[in-house]
Amino acid sequence: MKNKKTRRSENALSSRLSEKQRNQISSLGKGMTVGAFGLVFMALIAPEQWRSAFVWVTIKFMFLGATLRVLYLTSPHQGKIDEFWTKLLETYKGLSTEQKLYVNACILMLGLALLLLAGGKPFLLAYIILLTFFFGYIALHDVFRWYKALSENLLGKAIIGIAFAAATNLAYSLAGQEVTQIVHVTPTNFVRTTLFIAILMIPVLMIFAGGIIFFIGIFMSSIVMLPSLLANFDPRLRSWLFAGTLAVSPLRFKFITRLFQIIFYSTIGYTIFASGQNGLAWYESKISYLAPRLIYYFDMYEGQECKLGPQYKLAPLGDAKFLLAQKLPSGIINFEPPVKCDDLPPNGARAR
Question: CB–CB of 292/180 below 8 Å?
Answer without folding.
Answer: no
